[in-house]
Amino acid sequence: QHAATAEGYTAEMEMTMKVSMEGGSVDMAMTGQVEAFTNPMKVHTTMQINSMGESTGMHQYIVDNGGALDVYTRTVAGEFDSGWGHTASTADEIVNSYDIQASMDIYARNADSFELKGEETVQDRACYKYTGLIAGSSLAEVLKATMSDLGLSAGLDGDETMELISSGLDGSSDMPVSIWIDKENNAPLRYTMDMTSVLSSIFASLLDGPAGGVPAMTVEGCYLRMDITSMNQTMNFDLPADINATAAPLEEGTLEPLE
Which of 60, 79, 118, 162 maximizes the CB count within 10 A of its CB? Predict the structure, then answer.
């Protein structure tokens, strides 16, 4: 209920993953921050990916422009700087990916059960901790809201991507999820997912599809944590001064939202 009233929030995300393949393994750490207003929509996200001694930074602004969304993105890696790119979108998936209530509703609909596991302190707040399992048969719907975070839909048509994911998740084991709820105001403060089995199934499906012929990969571990650091306290922010003057148009459908 508290999440339903959220018109602005900030969040921090962290994901760690280890993938092994022929010849060795790769560790990846991803951190991100979000500032979001939902009505009208205005979002600023940053993402930092560290892997194999290299660091890549991604920056994104999304602004509601009379019903259409102006999306600006920039990638910086070492000496490479893509500059600002721009596309316009009306995709509901972008809006929903920043809607806390929509995310909570997905978990509530698809979790077999959530059990109270006790009380813990998160962000200096007393919380109830609930744990549950997202059933394998419901994973495609749950993951659709976080596809851009996983980086699995780049270059693939949306329907084709979801068909591959759904087929890849057939027979997949359930996904463990934990949620921490503020005792005082019932606001969600943190959720975590163990996505190891899920990503293993997805990678297997994708590598048999458009990426066929790529050496087999094994996901040894993948864990996601999201903290809602403030709600309805987000300070307003301005777009960078050079963003409209320098942004180059991107092909429609090539940009995925960052959470």
Answer: 60
